[in-house]
Fold:
Amino acid sequence: MKANILAIESSCDDTSAAVIQDGNVLSNVTANQKVHEAYGGVVPELASRKHQINIIPVVDAALKKANIEASELNAVAFTKGPGLLGSLLVGVGFAKSFALGLGLPMIEVNHMHAHVLAHFAEDPKPAFPFLCLTVSGGHTQIVLVKDYLDLTVLGNSIDDAAGEAFDKTGKIIGLPYPAGPHIDKLAKEGEVKFSFSEPKVDGLDFSFSGLKTSILYFLQKQVKEDPTFIDKELANICASVQQSIITILMNKLKKASEMYGITEIAIAGGVSANSGLRTALAKTAQELGWNHYIPRFEYCTDNAAMIGVASYYKYLAEIFCNQSVKAEARMAF
Structure:
């Protein structure tokens, strides 16, 4: 008998639903929210309200695209956290009601765990053990993955995430939100002309707060001397900022590979869609003999398919939760 799982993802501003059958993705539908662009960042209250509007149509579309009836489902999976509490509450509440109405077991999934296991949505898949650099707007981690359900965080951001460094820089130089893709595009047209202070953090942890401050002070000084500086040097600023962030990420990843003697290397999360990071990983992999893995763009950003894939291995292990489960904005890995 096939295992059909409906998965729900609502941790931030994307409402997503997917249907997974025996670990294979049958559908993956996501509704984005454009309302936040005017504010330069996600507004939690607006995000939760949009989730309430989007979730039923998105789930309906996912079931239809997968050609699966609700009566054919075997479980309902959802993102428990981490994320925006209001957004999570919509997804968790819907999943609980849906599961209760159909008498289905529920599977809670850690959002960051799911980003790592997005690599198992399709081939090629990394072999265990592997290291995963998980980089998003809210998190930056290096994770040791020994098995589907055996993951250990080796390094974490002690302040800001890499994705936040992209977005805050973009806001300073007047780029639309989210700024990451715009910086990536402009960086291809520029050259690395400027340098910024690199945070000194022991071990495998990350810090991007100091880098953001360095970029801000540099730009303030240059604009004071020449008010047109940002306009004239926009592409070069983007190339320089992007290179600084990538260098920090890759140095830590290389250090982790050396420490643990692992050459199966993966990246995941929204920032893994960055072309500069992908190029740097491919170049380093060739130099150091790594086998490297990068998810398709659809599985880099927040999506329910990754929630479903992660939940499938919990389903096999019969790890379920009950109706008392609660959303958690800050959740241990």
